[in-house]
């Protein structure tokens, strides 16, 4: 797989955009999660209105054999509804926090979706035939008079227009006191974990009425609370290993073989802080917003406010790679604190071969880093610069002095436009980028 762009590497080009063009964006339409399935043929998004939209990749057409198929809407369904917790007098938002696909076992597809409190397992299946010729009911569904049935009919299957059905197979509820921030399917494909601010639970996909609490960092006295869990993920090929990150910038790796309750970690990853760079904002910007294992399982990547770090699981004292995402914002932390942007939770993702990583920034910019060449590129997801098959121009931010023609000043960045959620196709150079209520899909340029 090629690198991230620039020089002799391939270039990224615009493929398509999904979403409304309206300037006034409804809160419910804002995309809150993006996820490719294991093959990359399906792409799911969740939004703040509790909806899940699944896009399916079209097959290559015979007229254009070298063109890759576009992603078109395959299924849309309401996953979660707003609820009210009468005991605590709290509204439970319908917003979809995370979507995770399960490996495909048969013709149907399955995914987990979660809001703040409830996880649901959905089955997405196709139906292109319907049964006709029932004995006890008419075609319109009315029951027939049993005394008028004089002969026995054998129902037959008749072709019909393709219908995609989404049905909830399991509902995993009432296990989290705090807001769920992560779900992760285990490599055994039978269990998954869910994490909230203070606890991590292990579930079996077939059992909804109980889960095992495997991490609990809640202190006896809540006034002594110093950190919260921010993200958690299962190892891609060792079903007994998982990691979770904290608001203090640390990552703990746990092994479920050691104990049923993994309060004692097996490994503790933390980078020593440089005392000279300490400021009022140090603790806030060191909070980890996302953690992802590499596909190989050898590395993990963490995203904090200003940087992405790659850790070797065999080295706990410091990351092996650090990539600055938007270092030019360090001088703007005070205003970012005042407008609450400093608390934004950016996600990160690997490409299929673990050779490149991607994460988002402000002004609808997103960043890509090539781990082999150490090159990086800043691209923009916007309708203005998105011509069909048009090559994306790298963007540069000017931090001071004289601004060049193609550069944008750090003072003119739009902090309301932010790329929090991105996904990379597991096998190809196709990426999905969520920008408010629009989903942009880019791919490497084909000659």
TrEMBL record:
It comes from the Eukaryota. The keyword Repeat applies. One of its GO terms (cellular component) is protein phosphatase type 2A complex. InterPro entries: PP2A_PR55 (IPR000009), PP2A_PR55_CS (IPR018067), WD40/YVTN_repeat-like_dom_sf (IPR015943), WD40_repeat_dom_sf (IPR036322), WD40_rpt (IPR001680). Keywords: Repeat, WD repeat. Gene3D superfamilies: YVTN repeat-like/Quinoprotein amine dehydrogenase. GO terms for molecular function: protein phosphatase regulator activity. Belongs to the phosphatase 2A regulatory subunit B family. PP2A consists of a common heterodimeric core enzyme, composed of a 36 kDa catalytic subunit (subunit C) and a 65 kDa constant regulatory subunit (PR65 or subunit A), that associates with a variety of regulatory subunits. This is Serine/threonine-protein phosphatase 2A 55 kDa regulatory subunit B. It comes from Acipenser oxyrinchus oxyrinchus. The lineage of its organism: Eukaryota, Metazoa, Chordata, Craniata, Vertebrata. The gene is ppp2r2d.
